[in-house]
Amino acid sequence: MEKDDDSISAESLSLHTLASIRSLIINADTSGSVISSVFNFLTGLLSRDDPAILHHVLKLLSDLSFWRKELATQIFDSVLSNLLRLQNFAADASHGRFAVESLALLASLSETNPSIATALSKIDGEGFASICLGAPISSRLWLLRNAERFDVPSSVLLTLFLGFTKDPYPYIRKVALDGLIHTCKAGDFDHAHAVQGCYTRAVELLGDAEDSVRASAARAVSMWGKALVKSKVETKRRECTDAVFLQLCSIVRDMSVDVRVEVFKAFGIIGTASESIILQTLSKKVLGAGKGKKPQSHHSNEPADVSAAAGVFIHGFEDEFYEVREAAVDTFHSLSVNSIEFPDEAMYLLMDMLYDDYTVVRLKALEALHH
């Protein structure tokens, strides 16, 4: 430990040396003075800009904070101070990885020590965004999944998530959509243009090539679609609800089971639509009331096609996968609450579901009939 920090390189910090340091940390018999020396040695290495060293240093500091909880605050302060110093270098991939690892350690320490949690606010929205943009793929995934653990303004998160829905990597797009859904649930926004933008992007991703992205897009369409309806004046809300409902109907025959399940769950979130559209979901033949009726789509200049609703619930009840049938039956109650004719028209279809091969579907059908 007496060796000058400036003479240390990635090569000199061998695995044997690192293992020796860790053994000192986890050994309950190690004296306080030795632990203090280890702490000073490791925090001294933080000032070096060698990513190969910094990765191991953070791991050892994490171990030190776990085994020597009295040092947690000092470790937090040292790592945070170094991270703020390195923010200007976050665009570099190697420094970006180190910045994410630092954030992970800080988040963990703040959750186990609430008294230091407020210090995380020093990492402002701009700093968090710069780390996201400079992080490699795997680290970017972690950042987007854990963004809510940091004190980042909702406006910054909304911008980040919306931007990353255009990422070339499908897993990033999916996590970004999930982030938009979480932001929508938080309800921390009141900008009609932002709501429209998020809904429009979610609709675009209903046509994504990746199944998981389309499934998340279906959830996002329902959540942001509901927010979009609320943002409209009273006279426009019914038309907007119909457009969102029909947008979801357009992918009810998706090839992916997960997507079809999410679509029926999304119907339950929307909860309502015009009587003629809901009744159309029970008939594969386009009914007279729906012919020629095209409510204005709220993401493009093209009108929404009412024929998209034709036989939606028939397809759901007859789906070969029980998960889809379960979701379809489960959604029935949400739609029937706000409809007069729909429950009566769907009665015979639900009666058939009582003979389903799967118990869970039969129970859902029985519950729906009871209500």
From TrEMBL:
Identification of the protein by name: Protein SIEL
GO CC annotation, single: endosome
Species of provenance: Noccaea caerulescens (Alpine penny-cress)
PANTHER family tied to this protein: INTEGRATOR COMPLEX SUBUNIT 4
Single GO BP term: intercellular transport
Superkingdom field: Eukaryota
Transmembrane regions listed in the UniProt entry: none
